[in-house]
From TrEMBL, chain A:
This is ABC transporter permease. It is a multi-pass membrane protein. CDD domains: TM_PBP1_transp_TpRbsC_like. It comes from Marinomonas colpomeniae. The chain crosses the membrane at residues 6-30, 42-59, 65-84, 91-113, 133-159, 190-209, 215-236, 243-263, 269-290. It is found in: Cell inner membrane. It comes from the Bacteria.
UniProtKB/TrEMBL annotation, chain B:
It comes from Marinomonas colpomeniae. SMART domains: AAA. This is ABC transporter ATP-binding protein. GO terms for molecular function: ATP binding. Transmembrane segments: none annotated. The keyword Nucleotide-binding applies.
Length: 310, 514
């Protein structure tokens, strides 16, 4: 393998990992507030189809992305009302959201299957992209990839350094105690869930506007589920999610690379890698019970009703 | 205590709070002066917790006024309470384990408070030294002991310079040394003019540190006193009430043959701050009710757990049922031999919250309703319906989830279920705790019927009135020691009260050594 090939592989890994990064960033914020949203796949598909239609109709890519974010938020708002306000089971509601989004996106996009649009063009960042190797891998992407860099940095800062991050962690760990010190638990959770929806919508738009600039039914191909595993893989740390997303991206293009090199390993075995990695990480985390307790948001998946506080 | 300031810090006027089936607070009025350490006393369910939650804005009262520093206020939420200068240390701490001490404290502060403080960690260290609290701001809460966590909670209030500090049973989880440290902090705060509302079960602590005490019973203020002028025994009497206005009621019986025996039971507690059982000996006869009195946390839970088999440690020779040693058997085997239990905690221990009443009946009746390995649903449903009718359990039917019942109704159901097995020995903790008067009467009748059928009943309760009413013989626990057993007719509330305060212990220890 020569250096050029490695650069190309890493470049592709980042590109492949970016939609994962978006959804997982949204999901980690959502889970940190104590809400498990299994509707990622549905929100992402709705984002993909609405983003594609908006960009196709208006000819404006930016508009497409904003439409996808709004759509993702609306989807997550449905989820939020059901689980936060009415107290529905989070797992069942999340699964329902996925099924709903899958079906509705297929219905909306039926007439547009196979249409293509002009996707985002890569923008080489002046100076930075001239750095040998690194410049080609990191700074010759399209604008959404840069946006994902920015969002990761922003979230690392917000979660670890600000009061907003503290509040989020407090709500996810012990909503009753948070309520007792005057934090509006449901408001925090609504916002976290809707942020997750907007990010899932963005991930969907990335699929239909950048990765493969067209709409195909079910085009997210289970990325919403991988993102859920990714959050556990990263043990709910925002910074590690980026690393994990690119590792997963690398693993999923690995079979193409190896086939190109003439290796005869079954692509199915290689496609398994991300999941094997997740299981291994979960076993390692799970072996240390104390650590597991500290890493996962304690109230994850448990409903909170401020009216039952007496 | 400063008394020159005539404006009261906090005045509660006619605070009333009604819960379904229970009047938690009934026209409660209390006044606190600046710098006053005020004890709130009462048995479980007397309404103390509801009252302090009202002051802290967690519970909103149905009626009544709260006057803060001479001004009427409406405390709708904890954040309003904190803005007024009211801080509370909860019984179950409300800290975030995955955050550091200073992050925990920061979350409680408003932006302006934070700006005033500047460097929060520095301020914590400074206050730490000032009050001798020894709190390290950079440590993660999960690495702290219970006592340290409580100090963090107090620190959280100090940083906000509270004017009223509410402590809900602060000493129940502390070692004696930590208690002494806590009292020093409270005295310092009091000298600086901070009022303290102190909920406790431990009467000697109240006489030691509190300036005034208000005694609640059944949601009402029944008495106030100056603890330094009283003794634990006289305060205990105020808490449990005067027996004179209580009918002797039921006839007393004498047991026949010994069916259950506990001998030389000494066992350290499994809980970090539990009470070790110390050389417990007693016998239980068929056809009698033996009552064990005591202030909560003196070893009742531990005794109950080891007798029921919930505590799985092997105490083979200490427990005898009939002629059989049962200390090594597990809870299910003991049940099959004819023992039954009504634990204090109804939901989670007495019944599975999200299972129906029918399923909960099956849980302790497994032998009668299983044929060839199959559950006989029809007969168990009929039996459950019968129980519901007999004990007047208010619910939608035998399919209702246990958690949908009110506490009193669930208690009636559990009592009925256990009594219905016609046990040889029934162990029963706080049978009427939180149960309304009518339901309590039904439970009393059922217990007496069971006794008259020849069962031996061990009744563990904090409610002395009830013990005097039901028990044929009585004893008290204190600090894991069991007092001598006496016939109820031959004792009185003063003696039991003194035993609850531990006056028998010295003789007991001497006897054990001799």
């Amino acid at each position: 393998m020569d250096a050029d090939l490695i650069v190309q592989i890493l470049f592709a890994a980042i590109k492949t990992g970016t939609p994962l990064l978006f959804i997982a960033l949204g999901e980690v914020i959502c889970e940190k507030s104590g809400v498990l949203n299994l509707g990622q796949e549905g929100m992402m598909l709705m984002g993909a189809v609405v983003g594609f239609l908006a960009a196709y109709g208006s000819g404006n890519m930016g508009f497409g992305i904003i439409a996808a974010m709004v759509m993702g938020s609306i989807m997550s708002l449905i989820f939020a009302v059901l689980v936060l306000h009415i107290g529905a089971n989070q797992v069942a509601t999340g699964l329902a959201l996925t099924i709903f989004g899958t079906g509705l996106s297929a219905f909306i996009g039926a007439d547009f299957v196979g249409q293509t649009i002009q996707g985002f063009q890569p923008i080489a960042i002046p100076l930075l992209s001239d750095i040998p190797y690194v410049g080609q891998i990191l700074f010759s992407h399209d604008i959404l990839v840069y946006f994902s860099f920015f969002m990761t940095a922003l979230l690392v800062y917000v979660v670890n350094k600000t009061r907003i991050g503290l509040t989020l962690k407090a709500v996810g760990e012990n909503p009753h105690a948070a309520n007792a010190i005057g934090i509006k638990v449901l408001r925090v959770r609504y916002l976290a869930v809707m942020f997750g929806g907007a990010m899932a919508g963005t991930a969907g738009a990335y699929m239909s506007l950048v990765y493969t600039p067209m709409w195909v039914e079910g085009m997210t191909a289970g990325r919403g589920w991988i993102a859920l595993a990714l959050v556990v893989f990263a043990s709910w740390r925002v910074g590690r999610i980026m690393l994990g997303a690119y590792l997963f991206g690398l693993a999923s293009i690995m079979h193409l690379v190896l086939q190109g090199l003439g290796w005869s390993i079954s692509p199915n075995l290689l496609a398994m890698l991300p999941y094997v990695a997740t299981v291994v990480v979960m076993v390692i985390i799970g072996a240390d019970h104390f650590k597991e307790k500290l890493l996962a948001p304690r109230s994850l998946g448990k409903p909170f009703d401020p009216r039952n506080m007496a | 205590m400063k008394t020159h300031n005539l404006v009261s810090r906090l005045e509660l006027a006619n605070i009333t709070k009604q819960y379904p089936g229970c009047l938690a607070n009934d026209r409660i009025s209390i006044t606190l002066m600046p710098g006053e350490i005020h004890a709130l006393l009462g048995e479980n369910g007397a309404g103390k917790s509801t009252l302090v939650k009202t002051i802290y804005g967690v519970v909103s009262p149905d009626k009544g006024d709260i006057i803060w520093n001479g001004r009427e206020v409406n405390i709708k939420s904890p954040s309003i309470a904190r803005d007024l200068g009211i801080g509370m240390v909860f019984q179950h701490f409300s800290l975030f384990e995955t955050l550091t001490v200073s992050q925990n404290i920061e979350l409680c502060l408003s932006k302006s408070q934070l700006n005033n403080i500047g460097d929060l960690a520095q301020r914590i260290i400074q206050l730490s030294e000032e009050y001798g609290l020894n709190v390290d701001p950079s440590r993660y809460v999960h690495s702290l002991s219970i006592g340290e966590r409580q100090r963090v909670e107090i620190m959280r209030c100090l940083v906000q310079s509270v004017k009223l500090l509410i402590l809900d049973e602060p000493t129940s989880v502390l070692t004696p040394q930590e208690v002494a440290g806590l009292f020093n902090v409270l005295r310092t705060l009091s000298k600086e003019g901070c009022s303290i509302l102190f909920i406790s079960h431990k009467l000697h602590e109240v006489t030691e540190v509190c300036h005034k005490a208000t005694i609640l019973r059944g949601g009402k203020v029944v008495d106030t006193c100056v603890p330094s002028e009283e003794t634990p025994a006289t305060i205990a009497k105020m808490m449990v009430g005067d027996l004179a206005d209580q009918d002797a009621g039921y006839s007393k019986k004498e047991g026949t043959v010994e069916v259950f025996n506990v001998s030389d039971l000494s066992l350290p507690s499994k809980q970090p701050f539990g009470t070790a059982l110390k050389n417990i000996n007693f016998d239980l006869k068929a056809g009698e009710i033996l009552g064990i009195a005591g202030v909560a946390g003196n070893g009742q839970d531990e005794l109950m757990a080891i007798i029921s088999g919930e505590d799985e440690r092997n105490v083979k020779n200490a427990l005898t049922l009939g002629k059989l040693k049962i200390g090594h058997l597990h809870a299910g085997e003991r049940r099959q031999l004819g023992m039954a239990y009504v634990p204090e905690e109804r939901l989670g221990r007495g019944a599975v919250p999200d299972m129906s009443l029918t399923e909960n009946t099956l849980l302790t009746h497994s032998t009668g309703f299983v044929k060839n390995g199959l559950v006989q649903w029809q007969s168990i449903k009929e039996y459950t319906t019968e129980l519901i009718g007999k004990y007047k359990v208010k619910c939608h039917g035998e399919f209702s989830e246990a958690q949908s019942l009110s506490g009193g109704n669930l208690q009636k159901f559990i009592m009925g279920r256990e009594i219905g097995q016609h046990p040889k020995v029934l162990i029963c903790a706080h049978p009427t705790w939180g149960v309304d008067v009518g339901a309590a009467l039904a439970i009393h009748q059922a217990l007496l019927e069971l006794r008259d059928e020849g069962a031996a009943i061990l009744l563990i309760s904090e409610d002395i009135d009830e013990l005097f009413l039901l028990a044929d013989r009585m004893a008290a626990v204190c600090d894991g020691y069991l007092s001598p057993l006496v016939k109820t007719e031959e004792t009185n509330i003063d003696q039991i009260g003194q035993w609850m305060a531990g006056t028998f212990i010295n003789t007991a220890v001497q006897e054990a050594q001799a």
